[in-house]
Design goal:
The protein contains 5 helices and 7 strands; from the N terminus they run ββααβαββββαα. The chain has 168 residues and is α+β, with helices and mostly antiparallel strands. The chain is elongated and about 80 Å long.
Amino acid sequence: MKKSKIKIQNSKLQFKIKNPGFCITILLSTFYILNSCGCAAVSEGAKGIAGLSTRCLEEARQNSLTQAFKCDYKTCYDKSREILKEMDAYIYAQDKKKGMVAVYVSSDDTTPVGLFFKELDEENTQIEVSSPSTYAKEFIATQLFSELVIALNPEKKEEAGKDLPRPD
């Protein structure tokens, strides 16, 4: 049996495909794999390569720090974003419908931290703070939660600092 050869010539480009069946098989296999994975898997892989994936934050939710606040979902979400910006945390991903904000601790410290918002009822919202790093999770949660209490209850601003040790 004689193998077929395809010779492609152009004025500037020349190459030979010795086994066109193999090339077609590879192309169809690649197409099948990409389609069976779905867009989410492909985009998540691309985000992982770019350093923008939120998958590790989702996986770290089982060890998240959680606190409920007496405010509606929109207010809680918006105030949290404002506070994060004031803290110089770098927001690299957000999805208000999914209730997620992903930040780096700062523009210099690219440790990822995820905030997940859950509407408990019309007047109460829960925030989960997750991260693969215990330090980053605790740092963001402590700052955010205390600032959010102050922002939502201005009368408690004076009380917020009473428990902190004062320098002599």
